[in-house]
Write a structure and sequence with these properties.
about 375 residues, alpha/beta, two-stranded antiparallel sheet, about 10% strand, binds coproporphyrinogen I
Length: about 375
């Protein structure tokens, strides 16, 4: 039976009200990768456990999710479930390991559409309910432990970004393999993108059923595509998710949740994303807040972002200057803006410098 949270009233639903386009008392804030390597308590809790073991343990995953909520109590307005975008390729039958200090690695990435492995992946009847059950358990447990302090965000990787990992075999600088796929085998690439998009819909609906109150789709490698290629190989699949998820959630007897899309590097796509069914559009730091805000407001969309994570290595004066520019650009912070960074927080940032960033947003938008 689906978990029920009726007995846990929300003490802070600022981000949900903002995402629905309502006027609010101040800008809600959180940062991507807020539960991560810059926190000493992350290393403590993770201990010697393998990264994916942490994801598979609801207890560890929920503890990691809560760390920034405890540390920045009163400043951070959302939790994001501790997991990874690469659990979908794992559910599709691919092996992914996390190499310490290097990142994800696929020992056997997809080679060409003629390979047996591609056929297997395409024909496989992927059961995201069963194979990613540990994610839903972690979400339900985290939602209970949060006890209404802040809403919980669920997420998945965008089809284009997941395809990139599945054929590159890990992070990439030149994207040779995935460019080969889209420019040499476009139809096979699209068939796989469509399959991933359908799995994302199911996976996100199950996260909502488990207790996620908002969802975000991470298209971290969108910026590797030209505007023309983005329209062909990313946008249709991002839209497939936003066009189908609300109905899938409703079919479970639940209310749809706000949806965020973050297409990093695809600055040219803002007008198209403003026409999509996403409620919130995440921006990286290549956008001028004022310009983006004007467009988003005219289309009824909420923005999220967007300071360069690198400012957290700088002086407090520099942080204040960037926050002032964001607050002014994003309309003062009382409508249509969720404060965040323009990408995930990076290792070696001092936790107190993130605190200062949060405090400045709080001070300047209250
Ligand atoms: O706090 C949070 O934000 C929740 C947890 C979270 C999220 C949302 C993690 C934990 N990963 C992600 C998403 C994710 N994973 C993305 C999309 C967001 C982004 O662009 O940053 C991507 C691209 C990945 C893939 C991935 N996983 C990378 C990137 C490698 C590359 O190709 O450059 C890395 C380094 C990981 C490992 C990872 N995931 C999460 C953490 C805390 C870590 C570090 C693990 C460790 O070394 O301890």
């Amino acid at each position: 039976m689906a978990p029920n949270f009726d007995d846990i009233p929300m003490k802070n639903d600022l981000i949900l009200r903002t995402a629905r386009g309502e006027k609010v008392e101040r800008a809600p804030m959180w940062v991507m990768r807020q539960a991560g390597r810059y926190l000493p308590e992350y290393h403590e809790e993770k201990g010697k456990n393998d990264f994916f073991e942490c994801c598979r343990s609801p207890e560890i995953a929920s503890n990691l999710t809560l760390q920034p909520i405890d540390r920045y109590a009163g400043l951070v307005d959302a939790a994001i479930i501790f997991s990874d975008i690469l659990v979908i390729p794992q559910a599709m039958g691919m092996e992914v390991i996390m190499v310490d200090k290097k990142g994800p690695h696929f020992p056997e990435p997809l080679q060409t559409p003629d390979d047996e492995q591609y056929k297997e992946v395409m024909e496989r009847n992927v059961d995201v309910k069963e194979s990613l059950d540990y994610v839903y358990k972690a979400i339900t447990l985290t939602r209970k432990k949060l006890a209404g302090r802040v809403p919980l965000i669920g997420f998945c990787g965008a089809p284009w970004t997941l395809l990139s990992y599945m054929v590159e075999g890990g992070g990439s600088k030149m994207f040779i393999q995935v460019k080969t796929w889209i420019y040499k085998y476009p139809e096979a690439a699209k068939a796989l993108l469509q399959k991933i998009a359908e799995l994302c819909v199911e996976y996100l609906a199950l996260q909502v059923e488990a207790g996620a109150q908002m969802i975000q789709v991470f298209d971290s490698w969108a910026g590797e595509l030209s505007p023309q290629a983005f329209k062909e190989f990313s946008l249709p699949y991002l839209n497939h998710i936003a066009d189908n998820l609300p109905a899938r959630i409703k079919s479970k007897g639940l209310e749809p949740v706000p949806m965020t899309v973050f297409a990093k590097g695809a600055w040219y796509a803002l007008p198209a994303l403003c026409e999509s069914n996403y409620n919130t559009i995440g921006l990286d730091w290549l956008h001028d807040p004022a310009e983006a805000y004007q467009l988003a407001q005219s289309k009824g969309k909420v923005l999220q972002g967007n300071a360069d994570p690198g400012i957290l290595y700088g002086s407090h004066e520099s942080i204040t200057k960037v926050v002032e520019n964001m607050v002014a650009g994003f309309g003062g912070g009382k409508k249509g803006w969720i404060a965040n960074l323009g990408h995930g927080i990076t290792p070696f940032v001092k936790p107190d410098d993130l605190k200062f960033y949060f405090e400045e947003i709080h001070r300047l938008t209250t």
